[in-house]
Amino acid sequence: MKASIVEELRRGFTVRDIEIAAPLGREVLVDVKASGLCHSDHSIATMGLGYEFPIVLGHELAGVVSAVGPDVTDICVGDHVVASLLQFCGTCVNCLSGKTYRCLRTEATLRGEGEPPRLGTEAKPIAQMNGLGGFAQQALVHENQLAVVPEEMPFAPAALLGCGVLTGAGAVLHTADVQIGETVVIIGAGGVGMNGVSGARIAGAATIIVVDVHDAKLERARAFGATHTINSATVDPVAEVLRITGHGADYVFDFVGISSVTRQALEMLAKGGGLYLVGLGANDARLEIDNVTMLTKQIHVHGVWMGSSNLKRDIPLYAALYLQGRMNLDDLVSKEISLHEINEGYEALADSSSARLVITDLS
């Protein structure tokens, strides 16, 4: 099959033919129909982040099941599926408590020592990003990382469900559990932030404030349901949030993840409010806060991983909301590209008007 591979760090993406194994155990072979370009894949390609090379990246994928291993229980050939980088064993104490996003044995979704590699050959194996590898014509994935979606769900928006939607909407709906009538601030109006706006609207938040430095992104945020927008390059965002709300926000979601922005996010909180850290724009980002402020303002700071999501429950839910016209995913797909255009695609994502590019031509 054809796959776009990162051979070495900072060498970009190269399409070539590689071998993919037949499914074993609970593995599922998926014919990839759409695969989204996420900044996380680009970060691995340029910074490594502990991954092995060569590697097939791509973790936002949707497709059709073409084969299943002998132990697969809830997925059938012909099913339309969406994959997620959330890996869970299903048997550890956290999984049994419903917190699959905190699985203690994520390696259970991978092949064990002594088993042949999923990609490449024994002599030259090729790694998969988190057991996926969606920048390819096919992906071999553990069934725990796949959710079945309706056949009428288009593949391009479906691909976004497994990461950006789970993270953005899930941070609001699950991690923070925003309630009707409350006040939400979204900092960072990229694709994941827009899913945060959608989550706040679904939750019934009365005030949804979006902060960014690009007017084009803020205009898109209003189309997604923001009640107020703030360009932090031209006004003091903290003062403006306090002016709009009168006393600060109940929830602030930082989808940017740099120290200066996180500090501003903290200062936007109302008494009893919560700061949710979602983005990681800089590896050295830090937040300093004194105990007196924490105690007297009764605030809390929460790290968010994949929106505290259960992919088997949440991906079908968001697909249903999309098909009902209650979740906007179409406007997140800025452009559809081919497998050969990944390098150019990541260059295009630097344009503030772009939300997500999706590979739909796998030829």
Write up this protein:
With 363 residues, the chain is an alpha/beta fold. The strands form 3 sheets. Strands 3, 5, 6, 9, 10, 17 and 18 form a 7-stranded mixed sheet that branches. Helix 3 packs across helix 9 (311-323). The chain has 2 domains: 2-148 and 329-361, Quinone Oxidoreductase, Chain A, domain 1 (Alpha-Beta Complex), CATH 3.90.180.10; 166-306, NAD(P)-binding Rossmann-like Domain (Rossmann fold, 3-Layer(aba) Sandwich), CATH 3.40.50. The chain is built from 10 helices and 18 strands. Strand 12 (207-212), helix 5 (215-224) and strand 13 form a beta-alpha-beta unit. The radius of gyration is 20 Å and the shape is globular. The mean pLDDT is 96. The termini are close together.
Short description:
With 363 residues, the chain is of the alpha/beta class. The protein contains 10 helices and 18 strands. A hairpin with a 4-residue loop joins strand 7 (119-120) and strand 8 (125-128).
Task: Please give a handful of descriptors for the protein shown.
alpha/beta; Rossmann fold; 10 helices; 18 strands; 363 residues
